[in-house]
Amino acid sequence: MNLADMLTYADIGQLSRIADHYHCECNGNSKHELIQSILQTIGRKEFIESHVEGMSLEDLRFLNGLIFEGRRQFSLEELIACAQQSRYTEDARERETPRDVIARFRQRGWLFPGMTHNTKYLFEVPEDLKRRFREALERRFKSGVVTRSEDPAMYREEPDLLSEDLILFLRYVEKQEIPLNSEGVMYRRNQQQILESFHISEPLVGKGWRFGYGRRFKDYPSRFALLYDYACHAKWIREDGDRLRLTPAGEAFLAEETREPMIQFVTFWLRLYKGPIPNLLSLVYWIERCSREWVTASSLYDRMSSLIKPFYYDSPESIFEERILRMMLHLGMVRIGDDGRGERYVQTTPFGKSAVHRLHKG
Description:
Blueprint lengths: L2 H7 L2 H10 L9 H13 L1 H9 L3 H12 L4 E3 H10 L4 H6 L2 H10 L4 E2 L8 E3 L2 H16 L4 E2 L5 E3 L4 H15 L2 E2 L8 H10 L24 H12 L3 E4 L2 E4 L1 H9 L5 H12 L6 H11 L3 E3 H8 L11 H15 L3 E5 L5 E5 L1 H12 L1
């Protein structure tokens, strides 16, 4: 529903609160006049732009969550969780409660309760406002990125290589006896052999903090951990006591001699990483929108950093660089370049554009 429809269903008390917030001059006893006055105020071209520019970081994150959550309606508990996630610092949490944030968005006419018996305890952002907010946010994020017109001296991209390396991994499991230690992890010798066979190599995991980004992320390098977890999820491999084995389903997949579509890895990655990075889908969207040309990685991070919440020892910068940008490179969604003078650049690939379009259309 659009804003005009939601205002029509709203009671006069809610309309009066919205009109008072915007200092609308109209007959407060006339529902028709209240609706027309609110629509004229919110419908002004500069309205959304000015509110987005003046918005606190906490409200911006909350709004971003509502726009990209992938659902039209939210329960009160879901709204509270979204508001809590938008407050990264102790100071922000002390200033106001999540219910205060929700009440403010309702007072502004940006959030409405459901109109039917089945949806009266759910809340919704008007579709036309959602579209206008997204457009304003895009202009805000794009305004600060530094672009480059020509290709950098060197750049790297990895189209379809995850699919190719998945086959290499499954072939290795099919042909080798792979022992597992007491924690169900392959020994380093086997890991090294697998990684050396891949198109993209990675160093083995050393000592240190690693958890949160998948079942075997703590044991294997990031890209290989994604492949391994994907193969487990598809039931193509099985940790069978002290051995890693190919399953009958894995044998059938190899016999088909097909390649897994890259979009399957993208959706799996989003599911796997959304725990530590709750707004990952929106970050991927904004990166795609801001890097259709070559842009400096540093300026892109400057625009995205306000949306990235630290995760234990992972800083916003390391999350951006290692968990998002590098994984988008492995997934074939971006290419990363270097101008030879230490400046790094990012550009979305055609596959990255189509993948983001499919994700947000869905």
